[in-house]
Amino acid sequence: MTPITIALVMSWSPCYAKERVTELAAGRESISALEVCDLPIPPADRLWLLLHQEVLPEATLRELACRFAERALEREREAGRESDVRSWAAIAAERRWLGGELTDNGLGDAGAAARVAARAAGAAAGAAAEAAEATTQLALVKAMLVAAREEPVAAKGDEEDLP
């Protein structure tokens, strides 16, 4: 994984001023993705730093997106609201695409159907719920980073072995 430098962070146009980014670096030329997980900033800001292709491989980012979407759909189900089947189908399609079993066009079609379903649902989450979810998502990213340090990145199709 690419070390995260002040210059790299600034190239992403963060909401923090360069002085704050420099302060968070605490004299280090760069920090690791795992170190980002423990920065004294809100979880959503730590996620923003981590969820870039320069930090995590595209396949990992896509798998995380699937997991985040599944959690959101499961929370809806637990609240007594069943999500549109097109949303679940889009997640399954993404995983088939990651495994090389689906073409780019097939993935695009599934994504378009999911967007239609999302607009039809018109769901909006409150700020408190979003903050709680960011904390959970950050924990998942950190677990994946720790696992990656201990063993090679999982091959396509081995997603069930990830935390």
Write the layout of secondary structure elements.
Layout: E1 4-5, H1 6-11, H2 18-25, E2 30-31, H3 33-36, H4 43-50, H5 58-78, H6 85-98, H7 104-121, H8 127-150
Helix pairs in contact: 4-8, 5-6, 6-7
Describe the 3D structure.
The protein has helices at 6-11, 18-25, 33-36, 43-50, 58-78, 85-98, 104-121, 127-150; strands at 4-5, 30-31. With 163 residues, the protein is an all-alpha fold. It has a domain at 4-57 and 129-155. A two-stranded antiparallel sheet has the order 1-2. The longest helix has 24 residues, at 127-150. The protein is elongated, with a radius of gyration of 17 Å. The two termini are 19 Å apart.
Rounded to an integer in angstroms, the radius of gyration calculated over CA atoms is: 17 Å
Taking the alpha carbons of the first and last residues, their distance comes to 19 Å
Number of strands: 2
Spans of at least 5 consecutive residues with low confidence: 123-128, 152-163
**What is the overall silhouette?**
elongated
Strand content: under 5%
The quaternary organization reads as: single chain
Query: Mean pLDDT across all residues, rounded?
Result: 80
Q: Give helix % range.
A: 55-70%
Helical stretch tally: 8
The secondary-structure element order is: EHHEHHHHHH
Strand order of the largest sheet: 1-2
Sheet with most strands = 2 strands, antiparallel
Question: What is the SS-derived class?
Answer: mainly alpha
